[in-house]
Amino acid sequence: MACLVRSWIPLLFLQSFLVAIAFGSNEGEEFSEELLLKPLPDRKVLAHFHFENRAPPSNSHGRNHHLFPKAISQLVQKFRVKEMELSFTQGRWNHEHWGGFDPLSSMNAKPVGVELWAVFDVPQSQVDISWKNLTHALSGLFCASINFLESSTSYAAPTWGFGTNSDKLRYGSLPREAVCTENLTPWLKLLPCRDKDGISALMNRPSVYRGFYHSQRLHLSTVESGQEGLGSGIVLEQTLTVVIQPETTSVETNMQPSWSLSSLFGRKVVGSCVLAKSSNVYLQLEGRLGHESKNVDTEIEAHKLWMNSDFDLSLKPDRVIRESSSLLFIFDIDKSSDSEPFDLGLTWKLPSKWSCEQAPLHASRFLMGSGNERGAIAILLKATESQEKLSGRNLTTDGRCTIKANIFQIFPWYIKVYYHTLQIFVDQQQKTDSEVLKKINVSPSTDKVSSGMLEMMLELPCEVKSAAISIEYDKGFLHIDEYPPDANQGFDIPSALISFPSHHASLDFQEELSKSPLLSSFKEKSLVRSYTEVLLVPLTTPDFSMPYNVITITCTIFALYFGSLLNVLRRRIGEEERFLKSQAGKKRGGLKQLLSRLTAKIRGRPIEAPSSESPAAESSFLSSKLIFKIILVAGAAAAWQYFSTDK
Amino acid sequence: MKFLILVMLLCYSFAFSSGDTTIHTNNWAVLVCTSRFWFNYRHMANTLSLYRTVKRLGIPDERIILMLADDMACNARNEYPAQVFNNENHKLNLYGDNVEVDYRGYEVTVENFLRVLTGRHENAVPRSKRLLSDEGSHILLYMTGHGGDEFLKFQDAEELQSHDLADAVKQMKEKRRFKELMIMVDTCQAATLFNQLQSPGVLAIGSSLKGENSYSHHLDSDVGVSVVDRFTYYTLAFFERLNIYDNASLNSLFRSYDPKLLMSTAYYRTDLYQPHLAEVPVTNFFGSVMETIHTDSVYKAFSSKTSNNKINSEMPVNQLSEHDELQKANIPNDELKTEKQKCPYTQMRVDLHEKLEKFENVDTVVNLGIAVMVFVVMISSSLL
């Protein structure tokens, strides 16, 4: 009996396992689409599209995809990607006016061009190979030259400066990469409704790319299921952040421009994507406006919120949520239809002004020095207004108030940085390393092999007004084949990343909003970070026509020299006259004479009488024929011998 | 045994030589804009116009390799972001919503171009960046940029020479990567680029003869630069009148070029191309028109031979070579027999193998054969 029970147990396990799989697949994939609109203090409007696609854990063999893009799940499976982020950006995020201390800016303010980082779930030795294959796969998927990141001179392996601590992390960026329709189209094709229906239908290419800033981001992370036998689930987050200037007709300069979705994008939303679990549009109003009204309890108060003396909304919000410093209107677009499209508009009645929360320090970077030989890079951190509010949070053990700032920077190999020249100035006074520099990690570059990387952790006093870091470098020389076709334009140094490890941004909603992935991601604490400008370094570019000039000049000189020298050496002055005389003496047939001269030239002998010449040639020809015959027969005999003895 | 190997080699060569009788399976297009910098806007517009045309005529995106050397659509100088026009009336946005650029920017190099043609890529290169044509493919290769006597400039930094192009095409032919290839080049002195071509099945059209320039068609004062080249403009004018079902011949395309309008003389090299141009529809290269086969009975697996036969008979007369007709005559309609029938080479090999199996003293036969050969050699040498 015991034996019987023992054999049953595994079967029971198997059964429960199968049931788990069945339920797991029933749970299904989830897709949600959201749009956040936010008027910005400098008369622009921010539109943040957020699409989230979740694939639940299932067994890794034979996953069925309904909504989740197959291309992405194959990518994750093949290269064992644990977490990955790819962004395509043009324009620079204005930290002062568009915000620097909210989750939106810390997650979506990206460096110009393409930025890619990925964490792999493979043995340490295979990480670089996986990275290389991943870059190629992504370049095919997104129509961009991401494959340039495969070479070891263009990526780095940050240890702690990037914010994600993993030894299997690789980071690379391409500042020069163009971002255009061909990148957005494959990105949209990953969505279940593409750009045909729902919120994504708003993405009219010319209006998106006319904006001041557009950043298209794809973030994927795997979620371990914890169950054995089940693979990991994938969360794919796709965002597009656009900053657009609405067209205004009003002449008043201090008046905020009024806008509507159709005036921003030239399109309206006609119904939600039917495959989406939730389709919401949010309107966030920041600053003074948020504080004005305290109670949202009664219907009249709510009405006052969206139709008051300051501004009008064209549609009634479904819900209103208050945050510590802002108001959030929620609209559900399920109700819109072809006959009644969703076209949210905001009309300002009175001039209003507000400001955004800013990061503790504002970072900028610039080049110093002149000439084509050497220079210096400086990173300047300036205190912002919001610093007073934030300070006091980070008290060290000895009671000092400090701000921690991480700096992560990649240098291409042709920027040969001298790390010993690192200087740190706090409030224009030079400080020694031990005073402010808490941690530093340097990996020097190797010519044409790997790029250099600098990670620094600064600990600055809270009352700091400005801090500057400078480092000197020499400009390297490239091989003539390594120059790009537009070398005269200069070379880019990728953006530096400044992050504040002890500051975290989050929006503090009073209500529970587990339904919305966008708002719940805002609720989570995210690291405050900002990217600096891309630097353009002019390198010495050769005169590309120089090799050609050198070749032509040398050839001319050689030809002149050897031509005249040979002429002098070989010419016999008396010869020509004698030849002419002899020709006048002998009168032979033209063709025969020509032939004899030709044979004489070939043989290098003086002209002989034709009669004496021919028999000798005949005999030598005969003898060669004879030798050939003998060799042939001997060969045949040898072959015969070989094959007969082979047995 | 050595004799057998010889026979096998002969058989192989027979099989290879019969390669060009394969039927047309699919269409590919490689469209290359080799010029960088904003003032070369027209070259990108040329390429994108062709891209739009071949897409409209049925070649899907995955069978188009589009190489653009610079970004004009989202260029900071472009007054119309994410839009490219080839006419000053701005009626048609060539960039549309669905462009897939396979190679762009610094990736457009002579090396990558030759790699695409010859198919010699690194392992990691994704499928969308490869020309995965086969021996039944018709390929359109369109190139535009700045050229000269027997060369075409890439990105103002490199050159593709006529020898390179000819070598690549030769390699493609040997690797059986195409059945027919049409090269269309819109550059100055385009005709000189075809001088070294030798491979059969190649048709070439150039916008200008040696010593002639290819001119742009008109300037768009809103965009600020010339937007299209003359040769491409008139090619498009021809294609805009067509739809996928039209049967216009290559000859009518070639005749449509007027040297007065082009301000250069279009050049056609047809000596490597067998079929008669008047009978080849333009959609053979610029579109993808699939033959539909009507069957009365239900579809059966393994009856590919008979369906092949049907495709051939429905195709235009010019595509039927003599070999095809012979094959057609040989294939009986009875399905059982068709299944049994194998390719002549395998049949021959099987027969030979069977005979040799029956033979017991193979070695003596071989030795005797060699002895006979020795005699033959001796006789021939004494005759010399």
Structure report:
The complex is a heterodimer of chains A (647) and B (384). Chain A is α+β, with helices and mostly antiparallel strands and 647 residues long. In chain A, the strands form five sheets. An eleven-stranded mixed β-sheet of chain A has the order 5-6-4-3-7-8-2-1-10-13-12. Chain A has a five-stranded antiparallel β-sheet with strand order 15-16-22-18-19. In chain A, strands 20-21-17-24-25 form a five-stranded antiparallel β-sheet. In chain A, strand 15 and strand 16 form a beta hairpin. The longest helix of chain A is centred in the C-terminal third of the chain and has 36 residues, at 610-645. Chain A is elongated, with a radius of gyration of 38 Å. Mean pLDDT of chain A is 82; it is low at 1-26 and 608-617. By secondary structure, chain B is an alpha/beta fold. Chain B is 37% helix and 15% strand. Chain B contains 13 helices and twelve strands. Chain B has helices at residues 2-17, 41-56, 110-118, 162-174, 230-240, 250-255, 259-262, 283-286, 304-314, 322-330, 335-340, 344-358, 362-383, and strands spanning 26-33, 64-68, 103-104, 137-144, 147-148, 151-154, 158-161, 180-186, 202-206, 216-220, 225-229, 267-269. In chain B, the strands form three sheets. A seven-stranded mixed β-sheet of chain B has the order 3-2-1-4-8-9-12. A three-stranded antiparallel β-sheet of chain B has the order 5-6-7. In chain B, helix 1 (2-17) packs antiparallel against helix 12 (344-358) and helix 2 packs parallel to helix 5. The longest helix of chain B has 22 residues, at 362-383. Chain B starts with a helix and ends with a helix. Mean pLDDT of chain B is 81; it is low at 6-20 and 302-342. Chains A and B meet through helix 5, helix 6, helix 7 and helix 17 of A and helix 13 of B.
